[in-house]
Amino acid sequence: MPQIPLHYVDLRTFCYATEDEKRVEQALRTFLPGGETKDADEHEDEPFEIERTESEGHYGDRILVLSARVENADDVRHVLSRLADLESFDTLIDELDDRVTENTELFLRLDKQAAFEGDVRLGEGITFRGKVEAYPAKKEQAVENAEEVLERLRDEEP
């Protein structure tokens, strides 16, 4: 895949007071470069940076927001390659018109529990937001670019 038509990908999840922070981080790292193996060459020394922000729930309970922005083209390719593992990948492509906004952003919600186990499924818990390159910056062009990259991903999978 020579060119990636995404400026960046943001991944975000919440860690509620009843959840184990390390497990939630592990679920998020399922999508990040170096997250699935300990010996990834470019991320051997330092894991991909995850930002942590503390918040408070309605009843005063602690909520930790874990987020990461992936901007490097090779790292974005990695995140997209993880999406190719979706069982419902063809459905995702069919739903692009509903998943791309007027601001040329692609939104997905991924299953946090499945991600903890190393699986990739649409569901609840992890938000994926990718800024799709589109010139002119119109939704129609963004949908077309996103469809092109996802179809290339699907065709590359063995």
UniProtKB/TrEMBL annotation:
Residues 33-55 are annotated as: Disordered. Pfam families: RNA_binding. This is RNA-binding protein. It comes from Natronolimnohabitans innermongolicus JCM 12255.
